[in-house]
Write a structure and sequence with these properties.
606 residues, five-stranded antiparallel sheet
Amino acid sequence: MNKQIKRAKLIGGKPKKLRSFKPPEEDKLIVDREGNIIGSLSTDEPEELSAKDGRERDTGSGDSETGMSRKMRQETQLTAEERELKESTEISEDFDRLKRQLEEQVGLNKSFDVIFREMVFGGQKTGIFYYNGFIKDYVLTEILERLSYADQVRQEAEHQEPAEERRKPYRNWRTDHEEEPPGRQKEGNRRNIIGLFDEALIPHVQVKRTCKLKEAIDNVAMGGTAFFFEGQREAVLVDAKSFPARTTEEPELERVVRGSRDGFVETLLTNVTLVRRRVRDPRLKLEITQVGKRTQTDVCIGYIQDICDMKLVESVRDKIKEVKVDGVPLAEKQLEEAIVGKSWNPYPSVRYSERPDVVAAHLLEGHVIVFVDTSPSVMILPTTFFHHVQHAEEYRQTPIVGTYLRWVRFIGIAASIFLLPLWLLIVSSPELKPAGLEFLGPQKPGRIPLLGQFLIAELGIDLMRMAAVHTPSPLAIAMGLVAAILVGEVAVKAGLFTNEVILYLSVAAVGTFATPSYELSLANRICRLALLVIAAVFKVPGFVIGSTVLLLMLALQRSYNTPYLWPFIPFNVNAMRHILVRVPFLSMKTRLSLTRPKDRTRQPQR
């Protein structure tokens, strides 16, 4: 028994130590002298290679694929055949080569949403190329159902009397060509197959042919479907697309009490249709182009041909064509910066609108509108400062009520810029107080200087605004209570802020929120902060100089060669009357000269 125990101990041996788990080491980064990350080095590669490659990179002769794995090298380094397939533009007759072209150019068999479906219709091998998620299932189902009758249609075409077809002034896929030479017969057969599918078998409205592979790929990337036929160098493109889109609803920033409730969405075709519905003039032109080498974002330029100044249209068109970037994923804002180029000026040079009725009204005034796909905002060119302070609600009421609403808005916008600097200037310089306004100023000074109170409160309001954007709707009310009661009231009771600072800051904030243009309200807020600081430091001279600089900046600014403060500078009596007073509809007989319209008459002459 004791011998068995000793033997068991001998077999068991010493207990093994558990290996501690070590996480995989990360690759070492290769950084140049300017701090740019130019590559990585795997931990299993020698450090001498890293130093050598770093020196080669500094001299500009290094290998750009240092630190890549073998698999990554294989994916990035193309063979001569792969490069030729990637750069080819012609549609191949052989489906095997065609699929290799699609593999190299669009990632077929790599991207899960790129589909190439092979089917046979009427003895003709057909390839259906599309992006899953863009296609309309029911439309393609109808097309495939129709294609299933290809044998029947072809047999009927072959048994038709050729004499009837010869009477037609043109030749199509039914035309008899037995007397043609063999080479022409073969080419005619190719045309007949394409014509058979295009004219008789594909029951869709928007269909076109192409012999360019890039055009077919671009059409599919925009949501279409391409039909390839083996033995043919031509494809049939069907525009049967369905983009993920929301329904039209009233814009949050341009609400009205009375009026239409529809608004633009992220789909270009829907937005164009909403404008076409309101402007049924056949001279309304909508030109489409693409911006971005990689994104190929659709951009549409809209104008009424016999009203709009064609020099303005050409200028906008040329500037859009000159945009050479990888893409504009942020849509209209990036395009605006590319075609306007106003650098650091905070005031907007274009007007945005999400209301189709507002856009239609500007079209009738001779403006140019720019749609950008994936964006519900439409750019209006050119615009002035006074375009940004008008609202659709003014034209939905009677002229006297519209004028009253406009002046209330003007007062609110002026208060949002000048109220706080003027109050701070009067309080800090008591000799400036006019008679009867001696009550202005805090009765008890706070523990924080007035300028500090204003700056802290301004930053607090901006912080609450940003928090409201990112806060879910059920929590927005709770956030407002916290900001108003726990922060504002407690700060006043603690003596950190004075009541008048909160009062006047609230009035300025309401004026900011009453500004119709969100971009203009942000620009006014920045100018208000600048005037506050200048008035606190330099007193009256600082406020006067700051206001003068602001006025000069606005007067010198131009939007497509249009004065920004027109009709105030340069002064135009008739146009200024339309700005100050909401004129009755039938009294507006001519268009304003701002856009230099061809036809200035609003009402047709009898």
